[in-house]
Write a structure and sequence with these properties.
Elements: E1 3-13, E2 16-28, E3 31-43, E4 50-53, E5 56-65, H1 67-76, E6 80-81, H2 87-100, E7 104-110, E8 117-119, E9 143-146, E10 152-155, E11 161-166
Antiparallel strand pairs: 1-2, 2-3, 4-5, 5-11, 6-11, 7-8, 7-9, 9-10
The protein binds calcium ion (CA).
Protein backbone atom coordinates (compact mmCIF):
# COMPACT_ATOMS: atom_id res chain seq x y z
CA UNK A 1 0.00 0.00 0.00
CA UNK A 2 1.00 3.58 -0.29
CA UNK A 3 -0.25 6.86 1.01
CA UNK A 4 0.32 10.30 -0.33
CA UNK A 5 -0.99 13.74 0.42
CA UNK A 6 -2.76 15.18 -2.52
CA UNK A 7 -5.18 17.82 -3.60
CA UNK A 8 -7.77 17.32 -6.24
CA UNK A 9 -9.38 20.17 -8.06
CA UNK A 10 -12.59 19.91 -9.94
CA UNK A 11 -13.60 22.72 -12.18
CA UNK A 12 -17.34 22.88 -11.85
CA UNK A 13 -18.24 25.71 -14.09
CA UNK A 14 -16.68 28.88 -15.34
CA UNK A 15 -14.46 30.40 -12.64
CA UNK A 16 -15.58 28.00 -9.95
CA UNK A 17 -13.56 25.17 -8.39
CA UNK A 18 -14.00 22.48 -5.80
CA UNK A 19 -10.77 21.79 -3.96
CA UNK A 20 -10.29 18.60 -1.96
CA UNK A 21 -7.20 17.99 0.13
CA UNK A 22 -6.46 14.70 1.76
CA UNK A 23 -4.63 11.44 1.81
CA UNK A 24 -4.71 9.15 -1.18
CA UNK A 25 -4.32 5.57 0.00
CA UNK A 26 -4.34 2.38 -2.03
CA UNK A 27 -6.55 -0.20 -0.36
CA UNK A 28 -6.11 -2.99 -2.89
CA UNK A 29 -4.80 -3.40 -6.36
CA UNK A 30 -6.27 -0.81 -8.63
CA UNK A 31 -8.29 0.83 -5.90
CA UNK A 32 -7.48 4.00 -4.11
CA UNK A 33 -9.42 5.97 -1.58
CA UNK A 34 -9.14 9.66 -0.96
CA UNK A 35 -9.55 10.55 2.70
CA UNK A 36 -10.57 14.17 2.51
CA UNK A 37 -9.27 16.44 5.26
CA UNK A 38 -10.46 19.67 3.83
CA UNK A 39 -12.90 20.77 1.23
CA UNK A 40 -13.23 24.18 -0.24
CA UNK A 41 -15.38 25.71 -2.88
CA UNK A 42 -13.54 28.41 -4.67
CA UNK A 43 -16.14 30.53 -6.31
CA UNK A 44 -14.13 33.07 -8.12
CA UNK A 45 -16.36 34.58 -10.71
CA UNK A 46 -14.06 37.49 -11.13
CA UNK A 47 -13.77 38.14 -14.83
CA UNK A 48 -10.35 36.79 -15.55
CA UNK A 49 -8.90 37.35 -12.11
CA UNK A 50 -8.01 33.69 -11.95
CA UNK A 51 -4.90 32.52 -13.75
CA UNK A 52 -4.18 28.87 -14.35
CA UNK A 53 -0.58 27.87 -14.97
CA UNK A 54 0.23 24.19 -15.11
CA UNK A 55 -0.91 22.69 -11.83
CA UNK A 56 -1.44 26.00 -10.11
CA UNK A 57 -4.31 28.42 -9.91
CA UNK A 58 -3.58 32.00 -8.84
CA UNK A 59 -6.42 34.16 -7.59
CA UNK A 60 -6.97 37.32 -5.59
CA UNK A 61 -9.76 38.33 -3.25
CA UNK A 62 -8.91 41.96 -4.02
CA UNK A 63 -8.03 42.74 -0.39
CA UNK A 64 -4.97 44.70 0.70
CA UNK A 65 -3.65 43.55 4.06
CA UNK A 66 -0.34 42.88 5.82
CA UNK A 67 1.72 39.78 5.12
CA UNK A 68 0.46 37.68 8.02
CA UNK A 69 -3.19 38.40 7.24
CA UNK A 70 -2.70 37.71 3.54
CA UNK A 71 -1.07 34.36 4.29
CA UNK A 72 -3.80 33.48 6.77
CA UNK A 73 -6.60 34.20 4.31
CA UNK A 74 -4.92 32.08 1.63
CA UNK A 75 -4.48 29.19 4.05
CA UNK A 76 -8.08 29.47 5.20
CA UNK A 77 -9.11 29.10 1.56
CA UNK A 78 -7.02 25.93 1.27
CA UNK A 79 -4.00 27.47 -0.49
CA UNK A 80 -0.99 29.58 0.29
CA UNK A 81 0.43 32.91 -0.83
CA UNK A 82 1.37 33.07 -4.49
CA UNK A 83 4.99 31.97 -4.93
CA UNK A 84 6.34 32.15 -8.46
CA UNK A 85 8.64 29.22 -9.22
CA UNK A 86 9.38 30.22 -12.80
CA UNK A 87 8.90 32.98 -15.34
CA UNK A 88 5.52 31.70 -16.46
CA UNK A 89 4.13 31.74 -12.93
CA UNK A 90 5.64 35.15 -12.29
CA UNK A 91 3.82 36.44 -15.38
CA UNK A 92 0.53 34.95 -14.23
CA UNK A 93 0.83 36.67 -10.84
CA UNK A 94 1.87 39.86 -12.58
CA UNK A 95 -1.33 39.69 -14.62
CA UNK A 96 -3.34 39.93 -11.38
CA UNK A 97 -1.08 42.66 -9.97
CA UNK A 98 -1.69 44.67 -13.12
CA UNK A 99 -5.44 44.15 -13.06
CA UNK A 100 -5.64 45.63 -9.58
CA UNK A 101 -2.70 47.97 -10.14
CA UNK A 102 -1.48 47.15 -6.62
CA UNK A 103 1.72 45.64 -5.32
CA UNK A 104 1.30 42.15 -3.84
CA UNK A 105 3.13 40.17 -1.17
CA UNK A 106 4.66 36.92 -2.39
CA UNK A 107 5.02 33.69 -0.40
CA UNK A 108 8.68 34.36 0.25
CA UNK A 109 10.42 35.40 3.47
CA UNK A 110 13.92 36.14 4.61
CA UNK A 111 15.47 33.61 6.95
CA UNK A 112 16.08 34.70 10.54
CA UNK A 113 19.76 35.48 10.30
CA UNK A 114 21.26 34.51 7.00
CA UNK A 115 20.09 37.23 4.64
CA UNK A 116 18.81 34.42 2.44
CA UNK A 117 15.28 34.35 1.14
CA UNK A 118 13.22 31.19 0.88
CA UNK A 119 9.69 30.09 0.15
CA UNK A 120 7.43 30.22 3.20
CA UNK A 121 7.26 26.42 3.12
CA UNK A 122 11.02 26.34 3.62
CA UNK A 123 11.91 25.36 0.06
CA UNK A 124 14.89 27.13 -1.49
CA UNK A 125 14.28 29.85 -4.05
CA UNK A 126 15.49 28.51 -7.35
CA UNK A 127 13.81 31.27 -9.32
CA UNK A 128 14.08 34.97 -8.44
CA UNK A 129 13.11 38.20 -10.15
CA UNK A 130 14.72 40.88 -7.99
CA UNK A 131 14.62 44.42 -9.26
CA UNK A 132 18.04 45.96 -9.75
CA UNK A 133 19.74 46.73 -6.40
CA UNK A 134 17.27 44.49 -4.52
CA UNK A 135 17.16 42.85 -2.07
CA UNK A 136 18.60 45.76 -0.13
CA UNK A 137 16.95 45.51 3.29
CA UNK A 138 19.96 43.82 4.93
CA UNK A 139 17.71 41.95 7.33
CA UNK A 140 15.25 44.79 7.97
CA UNK A 141 12.87 43.87 5.13
CA UNK A 142 11.72 40.33 5.73
CA UNK A 143 8.92 40.08 3.17
CA UNK A 144 8.85 40.36 -0.61
CA UNK A 145 6.50 42.37 -2.77
CA UNK A 146 5.91 42.25 -6.50
CA UNK A 147 5.94 45.55 -8.36
CA UNK A 148 3.58 46.27 -11.25
CA UNK A 149 6.35 45.36 -13.70
CA UNK A 150 6.73 41.88 -12.17
CA UNK A 151 10.04 42.54 -10.43
CA UNK A 152 10.56 41.85 -6.72
CA UNK A 153 11.53 44.01 -3.78
CA UNK A 154 12.25 42.98 -0.21
CA UNK A 155 9.93 45.03 1.98
CA UNK A 156 8.60 45.30 5.51
CA UNK A 157 5.81 42.88 6.35
CA UNK A 158 3.34 45.30 7.94
CA UNK A 159 2.27 47.19 4.82
CA UNK A 160 -1.02 46.71 3.03
CA UNK A 161 -0.52 44.72 -0.12
CA UNK A 162 -2.82 42.89 -2.49
CA UNK A 163 -3.57 39.31 -1.45
CA UNK A 164 -2.86 36.80 -4.20
CA UNK A 165 -3.14 33.11 -3.37
CA UNK A 166 -2.15 29.96 -5.16
CA UNK A 167 -4.11 26.72 -5.04
CA1 LIG B 1 14.01 46.53 -0.63
Amino acid sequence: TFTEMTSIRLKTRKNSFLLFRGELTSISEGWRVLFVFSFHVLVLALNGKIKEVGEKIFASNGKEVDFASALESCEEAGGTLATPMNEEENKAILGIVKQYNRYAYLGIKECQASGQFQCINGMPLNYTKWRKYEPNGKGTEKCVEMYTDGSWNDRKCNLRRLTICEF
